[in-house]
TrEMBL record:
One of its GO terms (molecular function) is endonuclease activity. Keywords: Endonuclease, Hydrolase, Nuclease. It comes from Flexivirga oryzae. This is Putative nuclease of restriction endonuclease-like (RecB) superfamily.
Length: 75
């Protein structure tokens, strides 16, 4: 296991779910801890999701605005 946090997660899952060695190996193979972390990182509300999307689009628009566009006679 990579970290103490990851190891603790799998130990807790094994105890709580009374997992067999095979079931625990399958959970580790499916990257249960990593999947849980990704799910927890999802926006908690629609407003938060909208804010994140707006931030991404604003940053992209700013990057595009800084680029110099060729003039008509340069083409």
């Amino acid at each position: 296991m990579r970290t103490h946090k990851v190891r603790s997660f799998y130990i807790e899952q094994a105890i709580a779910g009374r997992l067999s060695a095979k079931a625990l190996r399958q959970l580790i193979g499916r990257q249960g801890f990593e999947r849980k972390e990704v799910a927890n990182a999802q926006p908690s509300s629609r407003a938060e999701l909208q804010t994140r999307i707006q931030t991404i689009y604003r940053a992209a628009a700013e990057r595009m605005a800084r680029r110099e566009l060729p003039s008509a006679h340069d083409v």
